[in-house]
Amino acid sequence: MEYVGTALAEMTMPQISPLAGEPIERADAERLAGVLKALADPARLRLLSLIQSAPEGEACVCDLTAPLGLSQPTVSHHLRILTEAGLLEREKRGVWAYYRLVPTAIATIADLLTPPRKRAGKKAR
Amino acid sequence: MEYVGTALAEMTMPQISPLAGEPIERADAERLAGVLKALADPARLRLLSLIQSAPEGEACVCDLTAPLGLSQPTVSHHLRILTEAGLLEREKRGVWAYYRLVPTAIATIADLLTPPRKRAGKKAR
DNA sequence: CGCCGATATGCAGGCGAGTCAATGCTGCTG
DNA sequence: CAGCAGCATTGACTCGCCTGCATATCGGCG
Fold this sequence. Notes:
The structure is a homodimer. Chain A is α+β, with helices and mostly antiparallel strands. Chain A has a single domain, classed as Orthogonal Bundle (Arc Repressor Mutant, subunit A). Helix content of chain A is 49%, strand content 12%. Chain A has six helices and three strands. In chain A, strands 1-3-2 form a three-stranded antiparallel β-sheet. The relative contact order of chain A is 0.18. Chain A binds a DNA duplex through helix 5.
């Protein structure tokens, strides 16, 4: 399979109703739930954390299996889910596959959750 | 079973390592994943949205089954999960059970996800 | 005090998710 | 070019979760 299009990208542009104001639609709820589901796993949260705190902000699979205590296929599986959710990006250099965080992806999710009340400090969205 | 103690409450006080900086511990990852798992469901997202946008910011089960298109036991089940996750609070008045959002619960989750970089605008927590 | 309405709980079926072992694929390296 | 190392994919197993039906519980009303 080749990459079905980063659920986050679909929701970051067309403003998905954040968890505030009007009741959200079914489709919006399902898309937001989809991205949250990608986050809602201990192994994947640790993967994001590990990658982000890695030397260059990037890491390859072989660096991640040990700290997680999971098999290489399993780690690869989780990385795939995070990538398809739009949270990670993959770059293959030689034999290694380097993963890094998509810059504003997680912040976008946080913004979708946070009610608009009192958010004067930030750029007006 | 009677209410095992609002996973969010356990993580909001003792500063759970947010998804930034140091690699997060297994226990932290599991607790954060637990709360996110409560959020990562279309029906529950819609419940939160419906309750929040209800007249007094509160709603009883009988008002929620119809818009969701789910049976009453199922709605009750989801409300229970959200309550145990620390996202909702329940108040029983007469025959009805009114649910409302725990004020800063969702914002707390958003803060745990957002990296600390460039968060000058907000109060220094 | 007995019935009815609003919720909560138990139980069961079905589907999706996490994990690993085995295997295939690709690009280095000797 | 033959062998090896790093990753991805497949298949199978298990477990947890969403949902509905049936039932128990609790409060109000006639």
